[in-house]
Structure formats: structure tokens, C-alpha cells
Amino acid sequence: MIHKFNIKRFFYKSIKQPRYALKVFIRRLFGNIFYYTHKAFLPESITLFLTYRCNLSCKMCGQWGDYGITKREKLNPKEELDFNTYKNLINNISFFKPNITLFGGEPLLYPQCIDLIRYIKSKKMHCVLITNGFLLEDFSKKLVESNLDELNISIDGPRDLHDSIRGHYGLFDRITSGIELINKIKKDKLKKPLINIQCTITKYNYERLEEMLDVAYNLKANSITFHHLIFLSEKNLKEQKYFDKILDMDSKWWKGFMFLPDIDIDLLYKKIKEIKSKKYSFSLDFYPDFSYRELLDYYSLNYDPKLKCLSPWMVSYIFPDGRVLPCLNYSYSFGNIKDSNFLEIWNNKEAIYFRKILKKYKRFKACLRCTELYRY
Known about the structure:
Layout: H1 7-16, H2 18-34, E1 45-51, H3 83-93, E2 99-104, H4 113-122, E3 127-131, H5 136-145, E4 150-154, H6 159-166, H7 171-186, E5 194-200, H8 211-218, E6 223-227, H9 234-247, H10 265-276, E7 283-287, H11 292-298, H12 311-314, E8 315-318, E9 323-325, E10 335-336, H13 342-346, H14 349-361
Parallel strand pairs: 1-2, 1-8, 2-3, 3-4, 4-5, 5-6, 6-7
Antiparallel strand pairs: 8-9, 9-10
């Protein structure tokens, strides 16, 4: 229901947003019950993948990074749903109030992104925007006025390190200026949007993680989460082909994570212990929150966690072409919102078959380090 690796993050949500946390708890309770039926209760959250377009090429990105899918396959940057299609979707799902996450690419490149946030909030749904921060200065006033609940911003280190990892010098200063503008507009009267910093642990920054604490403090962040890197071996992807055949799907998006990180685990754990030993003015978490033994296992080539994936019972992903997917990185589709009502798609025969196969094997071979595996 609340995974042991996710307890601290959920506790933080409970304090900051008690109504939101209660709703999530109830949805997860029903999700766990429905797990045994292959059908799913109403989803806890829906992620709208607004656009493939991005204005950066971050080194570890599965889409545009050094090993990303765009190195092997062209994505259509013009493939985006029109605003009315999203409005129809929101109208269709507003009665059960799922949490909506806006993602990409860079979601702020979607022309009607702000209008979409406003419409989501007009239906009293929780809304989160995940951004690389490049356009925050331009959108700061509109984001605050849109009543957005949470702003998740990717920052991977202090100025020199972040700009190097993200492949754009001057980016860190753009992000900090944007956040400072948002905080200035919010002043003392407005609490939203919450500023959540997301830092991905990589071979480039793991020796300097403690420097992120000053960054979070100076930006008056509400929280900072250090995310362990998602990666796969060639062996993992070869083993995944068995499941691809059963479900007539491909796992090509997972190929963007096929690399082995060069990280000193002892040093990383020492850094984690030091950071966790102190108190801060903001919430701090490592996700997943591993012990030393678990950390060694996670970064080993033989990692094989005995965990089951409940994500397709809890969440849904809608891609720029309208496809409803159970996972960001598999091509398997439940249907398309341009052709059918979301609620008809959510528990149709394609959805039930996918969940049935997933439940039988608990998780697929490419899922070993997916963040969703540790969430529920």
C-alpha cells in the first residue's frame, strides 16, 4: 500500500497536504484489493505526456540523453494532442479527482500548458508539473496564478555541475531566477506551488551531493529528493524479449537506460549517511530509501528484487498521440483517447490482459530499477 522505500516521502505529503495524502491512501488501499482481480479501481494518478519536444539534452535522459531513444529513432515533435482533446479527457475523469502530472519532453513547450493547468484546477484536481526549469522565468507569474499545486524541478548540482550535466551553460542561473520570481510572487500569502527539487544521482554528481543542500536552502525549496539512477544491462533487455513476445510489444524506450554507472557505492553511502544525519528547513529524501546492503544490491549487475509492480492498477500514462499506456517505457497500449472514453479504456480487455500477465510474473525484466516498482 505504502511501500517501505516510500514511507518518508508519503509522511511528508501527509503533513504538507493531508487531504491529498488521505485520498492517495484510500486509492492505494482499493488498488491493492483490485490487484487480485486483474481489473483496476479508478487510477490514483494520470500522467499526461504533453510533448516529445525538449530544449535540453541531459546526459542521463532516456529520451534525449547520451543513450536516449532519439539516438536510434526519430520522435515526431509535432505529435501533440489538441487542447480540446485534453478538455474532454478532464471532463471525463473529473468526478473521481485523480492527481494529474504534466510531463514530457519539456511540458512548458506545449502551447496550451498553462491553459491546461487552469482547466485541471477548475475541476478541483491536484496538478503537478515536472520541468527542467529552462522556461521558469518566462512562465513564473502564470504558473503561480494558475493555482498549480506542485512544481518539480530537476537540479543535479551547483551551477558548474548542473550546467555540465544538462548540456546548457547558463541554465542553473535561469532556473534560480525563475524560482526566485515564483517565490517573490507567492510572498507570504500563497503556499502554492510547492517547490520540489529533484536530483538524479549519477556518476557525474554523487561525490558532491551535499552541495545540493545549500541550493535547496537558498531557493527556499519545500523539498529535495535524491533519485537513484535507473539503468539496465544488455542481459536485462535480452531477457525482456520473452515478455515483449507474450504481449506483442517492444521495450525500445528502455534502451535509453542501457548503461552501467561508474559509482563508488561505499562513498555514495557515506555521503547519504552524512546528509541524512542533519536537520534542514525543507523535507529531504532519498528515493528509494535503501540500507547499505540494499544499495549494494541495487547497483550490482545481478540485482533481482523480489518485488511486484502495482503501477498499472494505480496510474495511467497518456502519450502525445493519445495512446493510453500502463508504463512510459513499453509500447503496449490499452487504447486511444481520440477513439474511446478513458473509463472504457481503463478496464478493457487489453488492460485486463496486460495486468493478468504482469501479475503472473510480478514484474518484467526491464522493470528492475523503475521508480514505480518502489512506490506501491
